[in-house]
Amino acid sequence: MATGSKGRPNSKSSGGFSNYSADNPVDVGDDHKSDSLAFLLIAILLVIVLVFLPLMAWMYVDVRQMEIRVDKTLKRLEK
To answer: C-alpha angle with apex 31: 43 to 45, nearest 5 degrees?
Structure first.
């Protein structure tokens, strides 16, 4: 790769596409809004998975057990 007059590489590449310029380095990681939004979405999903789904499963099992008890009681009363 050829160097410019100041001893640094030229910004033109010898093929392919390049958005990199030796004078303007790529700015990475300045937008924290997207990071905080991603963190918020992940936290909400974790709360749903770790709290609400087990709670709903427990409620389903509790209702199912109550139905079984009611069915047994009705059968005893019918006899």
So the answer is: 10
Q: What is the pLDDT of residues 25-59, one digit of tens each?
A: 655 656 667 788 889 999 999 998 999 889 999 99
Candidates 56, 54, 53; CA nearest to 64 is: 56
Q: Are 17 and 10 in contact (CB under 8 A)?
A: no
Strands (E) located in the chain? none
SS3 (DSSP) at 41: helix
pTM > 0.85: no
- SS3 at position 42: helix
